[in-house]
C-alpha cells in the first residue's frame, strides 16, 4: 500500500508476543500492540537521520467482543455465522516514531464494516479458502472477503491494515508531509 502511494518501506516483523497485552477496549489494545511493535523494531535500528518506524495492529470490535485472527476454521465459521448481516468496527492502531528526534505520535483508525448476509455455503467456502484464518476479524476487504463486505463507513486502508490519511496526520505532527516521503522518480 505504501509503495503504491509512492513511499518506499522496509517491512520488519516485530516478533511481539501479542498475548502479553490485555485490554478491554479495542482501541487501547490495538494501539498498545502498535506501540510495542514499533518500539521493538526501533530498538533493532541505528538512529540514522530520517528513519521513521510505523507500527500497526488491527482488531475487530463486534458484539462487545475484541476479535483478532480466528486461527481455526471452526472459529472462523462461528464468527461469520454471528457476523453475517451485521456490522463491526475495524480498529487499527498506528504508532509512528522518528528515530532521529525521538518524537512519537499515535492514533487509532476506526472503520465501520457492514457484512453481507452470507449463506452457510458461502461461509463454508470462504473459510475453506483459508483467507479468513490469518487476518483480524476473519475477513479482508480487497481479497476474497471483498464480496462479503456490503459497505464501510471510514477509511478502506484502515481495514487493510494502514490508514494513509491517518499517517499523513501523524507525519504533520512531526513537521513532515507525505510528498516529502515520495520516492524520487526517474
Ligand atoms: N490486502 C489485505 N491485507 C490484509 C487485510 N486485513 C489484514 N491484512 C494483512 O494481514 C496481516 C495480518 O492482518 P491483521 O491480523 O489484520 O493485522 P495485524 O493485527 O497487524 O497482524 P499481526 O501483525 O500479525 O498482529 C497484516 O499484514 C495485514 O496487513 C485486508 O483486508 N487486505
Automatic annotation (TrEMBL):
This is Nucleoside triphosphate pyrophosphatase. It comes from the Bacteria. PANTHER family: BIFUNCTIONAL DTTP/UTP PYROPHOSPHATASE/METHYLTRANSFERASE PROTEIN-RELATED (PTHR43213), BIFUNCTIONAL DTTP_UTP PYROPHOSPHATASE_METHYLTRANSFERASE PROTEIN-RELATED (PTHR43213:SF5). GO terms for molecular function: nucleoside triphosphate diphosphatase activity. The keyword Membrane does not apply. Keywords: Cytoplasm, Hydrolase, Nucleotide metabolism. SUPFAM superfamilies: ITPase-like. Belongs to the Maf family. It is found in: Cytoplasm. InterPro entries: ITPase-like_fam, Maf-like. It catalyses: a 2'-deoxyribonucleoside 5'-triphosphate + H2O = a 2'-deoxyribonucleoside 5'-phosphate + diphosphate + H(+); a ribonucleoside 5'-triphosphate + H2O = a ribonucleoside 5'-phosphate + diphosphate + H(+).
Amino acid at each position: 500500500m505504501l509503495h503504491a502511494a509512492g513511499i518506499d518501506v522496509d517491512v520488519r516483523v516485530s516478533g511481539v508476543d501479542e498475548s502479553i497485552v490485555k485490554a478491554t477496549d479495542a482501541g487501547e489494545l490495538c494501539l498498545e500492540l502498535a506501540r510495542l511493535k514499533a518500539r521493538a523494531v526501533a530498538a533493532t535500528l541505528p538512529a540514522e537521520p530520517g528513519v521513521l518506524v510505523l507500527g500497526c495492529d488491527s482488531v475487530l470490535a463486534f458484539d462487545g467482543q475484541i476479535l483478532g485472527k480466528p486461527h481455526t476454521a471452526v472459529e472462523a465459521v462461528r464468527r461469520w455465522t454471528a457476523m453475517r448481516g451485521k456490522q463491526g468496527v475495524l480498529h487499527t492502531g498506528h504508532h509512528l516514531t522518528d528515530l532521529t528526534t525521538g518524537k512519537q505520535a499515535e492514533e487509532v483508525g476506526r472503520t465501520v464494516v457492514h457484512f453481507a448476509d452470507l449463506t452457510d455455503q458461502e461461509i463454508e467456502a470462504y473459510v475453506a479458502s483459508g483467507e479468513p484464518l490469518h487476518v483480524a476479524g476473519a475477513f479482508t476487504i480487497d481479497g476474497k472477503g471483498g464480496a462479503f463486505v456490503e459497505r464501510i463507513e471510514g477509511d478502506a486502508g484502515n481495514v487493510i491494515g494502514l490508514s494513509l490519511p491517518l499517517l499523513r496526520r501523524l507525519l504533520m505532527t512531526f513537521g513532515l508531509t507525505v510528498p516529502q516521503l515520495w520516492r524520487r522518480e526517474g
